[in-house]
Design brief:
Blueprint (H helix, E strand, L loop, with lengths): L5 H4 L4 E4 L2 E4 L7 H10 L6 E4 L1 H21 L6 E6 L6 H11 L5 E4 L2 H10 L5 E4 L5 H12 L3 E6 L2 H14 L5 E5 L24 H13 L6 E5 L10 H19 L7 E3 L19 H19 L5 E4 L3 H4 L3 E10 L17 H12 L5 H20 L5 H22 L4 H5 L7 E5 L3 H4 L1 H6 L5 E3 L9 E6 L8 E2 L8 E2 L10 E4 L6 H4 L10 E7 L5 E7 L4 H7 L4 H11 L2 H11 L15
Parallel strand pairs: 3-19, 4-5, 4-11, 5-6, 6-7, 7-8, 8-9, 9-10, 10-11, 13-15
Antiparallel strand pairs: 1-2, 3-12, 12-13, 12-18, 14-18, 15-16, 15-17, 19-20
The structure holds pyridoxal-5'-phosphate (PLP).
């Protein structure tokens, strides 16, 4: 795996040069230089770097692919897209997105009342808004208000009751009716983890009987001319294009049938989201290109329209992951390598040591390149025996400590002998010679999909890449939860560098974290959101660090979970001498992440 698979997942957004990961844009700054600039302003702990230029690139790529297909196939419908707010609602992401999408008429999709309010407030007027998900009458009322505000809004109906609510709101308010879409419950399902978003057992959408009923009801209540859209969404992260083609055929025919039944303003098919992003550093998992995807959509819809003799529909997409994932990089400082506790100067041998310990000592002393592998193996065996002896009471704590130090030092020494020529040999015992890296972040807060659904994310160091990574690595976060770990996986091994953190810094980047992670993250152990920064480039291609949003203060975290900060302060104040209380208030005003010691690192 060269350069941590950056050629597979990186999409040319980043590249490696002189041992550093660099941004392939503007003045091509290294991620390390950005991180150092931010840390100089005393923002320690994990950092979430957002790159609005990558979001913009994704929007542009999406529109160009579809518009090219449309031209190529001489397609009569238009291409339209909205961003599903569910995927990332945070202002530092959304506001630049809205700005970047303006010239395309890129709109927003909302799935809840709060998201709808965001869409109404920030959507570029004239760009479409679509509304999905379960709704009550209040939510539908908000859609009417959005329409009155001048928005091009389409309420997508998940069930017949929602249609009845529309008719009621129309009667009660006398406001103009927004456009209406019907979400169809497909016979064909999706693929991948999220297949339950599509398919006949789906949580969402109308069956064919309900679609016919819905249209009848619309005719009876005289709102049929507001029916403009057929919608489906077969699930997130489609790894193959085949289920989409089936879904398109199904939805295309429903569209054509409804048109032939008299739905004269039905003009659009909304194909939902689901465009996949490459997360793997080892092999490609997405088996189609965007061009193929666009061509398939355009070709299939044209084919059906011709077959049924109806107008070719306008195409809407709601891809979220594709637009947002690559735009965000999580940077975590490495706080500690566990083997540093095993430095030789802590070795405290006795005048007379147990024989196995004496042997460990000799293995370490006498190791040569030729014997490195064998001695390392022996030392691991000895260590196991010594642990058993400890449990049985035959050796004491000092012996055990000596054994651990010697074994770790033997492994380190062997690796330094073997790393150049016998690297493969070394890999065979990866599992046994792992190094644990303690990272200043919370996996629950920053990578919830890893915790919840085993989602893989590309991981790589952002510096030291000119050296060979020799340690098979497992990663630990700073929560007090044993699930806060990314264990070493021999099938997808991660190798990191052996670093002396007293001399230099080491940072790991987690890439493609811009989709879903931000608001899914949880405050387990009361670690809140990392410090966020938008990295933008001015017209001379220089870096500007914008919208720095510091990780929440402890006081605010506590208030967020409904404690009264004044009460907390009063209780502490009345129980502490004044000077200690004063010291404590400084901490209340800081975030929960650990402060790494700023070392004398010079680039
Ligand atoms: C979640 C969702 C999307 C976005 O899916 P992605 O896989 O992120 O592209 C689009 N439309 C609907 C209706 C959704 O529920």
């Amino acid at each position: 795996m060269k350069n941590y698979g950056i050629d597979i997942w990186g999409d040319n957004n980043f590249f490696v040069e002189k041992g550093l990961v660099k941004v392939n844009h503007g003045c091509e700054p290294s991620l390390l230089s950005i991180v150092k600039d931010i840390r100089k302003q005393d923002f320690k702990g994990p950092l979430l770097l957002r790159f609005p230029h990558i979001t913009k690139k994704q929007i542009t790529t999406l529109y160009s692919a579809f518009n090219k297909s449309i031209k190529e196939y001489d397609y009569k419908g238009s291409f339209n897209a909205v961003f599903p707010l569910k995927v990332n609602q945070l202002p530092n992401f959304v506001l630049p997105l809205v700005q970047a999408g303006k010239k395309y008429g890129y709109g927003l999709e909302a799935g809840s009342k709060a998201e709808l309010i965001l869409a109404m407030t920030y959507n570029n007027m004239g760009s479409p808004i679509t509304v999905n998900g379960f709704k009550d009458k209040e939510m539908i009322h908000i859609c009417f208000i959005a329409k009155a505000m001048g928005h091009d809004i389409t309420v997508i109906i998940e069930g017949l009751n929602e249609l009845e609510m529309i008719v009621e709101v129309l009667k009660e308010t006398g406001l103009e009716c927004p456009n209406v879409g019907l979400r169809v419950r497909l016979h064909s399902g999706g693929s991948g983890l999220w297949a339950k978003s599509g398919g006949i057992n789906s949580k969402f959408g109308l069956t064919s009987t309900e679609i016919l009923e819905a249209f009848e009801l619309m005719e009876e209540t005289n709102i049929h001319e507001y029916l403009t859209m057929i919608h489906f969404h077969i699930g997130s992260a489609m790894n193959s294009i085949k289920p989409l083609k089936k879904a398109l055929r199904e939805a295309g025919h429903i569209y054509a049938e409804l048109k032939n039944l008299g739905a004269k303003n039905l003009t659009s098919i909304n194909i939902g989201g689901g465009l996949a992003v490459e997360y793997s550093a080892y092999e490609r998992t997405r088996f189609y290109s965007l061009t193929e995807f666009a061509n398939d959509v355009v070709f299939t819809l044209r084919d059906i329209a011709r077959q049924k003799g109806v107008d070719e529909p306008n195409i809407f997409t709601e891809s979220g992951r594709f637009i947002s994932a690559a735009s965000t990089v999580l940077i975590t400082p490495v706080l500690e390598l566990f083997s540093t506790e095993y430095e030789l100067d802590h070795l405290n041998l006795k005048d007379k040591n147990p024989p196995l310990i004496q042997e460990l000592y000799e293995l370490h002393r006498d190791m040569t390149k030729r014997t490195a592998y064998e001695y390392m193996h022996d030392s691991i065996d000895h260590m196991e025996s010594l642990l058993t002896l400890f449990d049985l009471g035959y050796i004491d704590l000092q012996d055990r400590s000596n054994a651990e130090i010697l074994t770790h030092q033997i492994i380190k020494k062997a690796i330094s002998f073997l790393e150049v020529e016998d690297y493969e040999e070394l890999k065979r015992i990866d599992q046994n010679i792992q190094e644990k890296y303690l990272l200043n972040f919370s996996l629950f807060q920053s990578l919830p999909d890893y915790w919840g659904i085993d989602q893989e994310f590309p991981i790589m160091p952002i510096n030291h890449l000119d050296k060979k990574p020799t340690r098979s690595a497992s990663l630990w976060d700073i929560t007090c939860d044993s699930d806060g770990e990314l264990p070493f996986d021999a099938k997808k091994p991660l190798y990191l560098h052996d670093i002396n953190l007293n001399k230099e810094d080491y940072f790991l980047g987690f890439f493609n974290v811009g989709a879903y992670q931000d608001t899914l993250g949880m405050k387990h152990n009361l670690f809140s959101h990392p410090t966020e920064i938008n990295v933008v480039f001015d017209k001379d291609d220089n870096v500007i660090l914008e919208k720095i949003l510091e990780s929440q203060k402890i006081e605010d975290i506590l208030e967020d979970i409904d404690y009264d900060p004044n009460e907390i302060k009063n209780i502490l104040k009345s129980n502490l001498p004044e000077n200690l209380y004063k010291d404590l208030t400084i901490y209340l005003n800081q975030n929960s992440y650990l402060k790494t010691i700023w070392s004398y690192y010079d680039e």
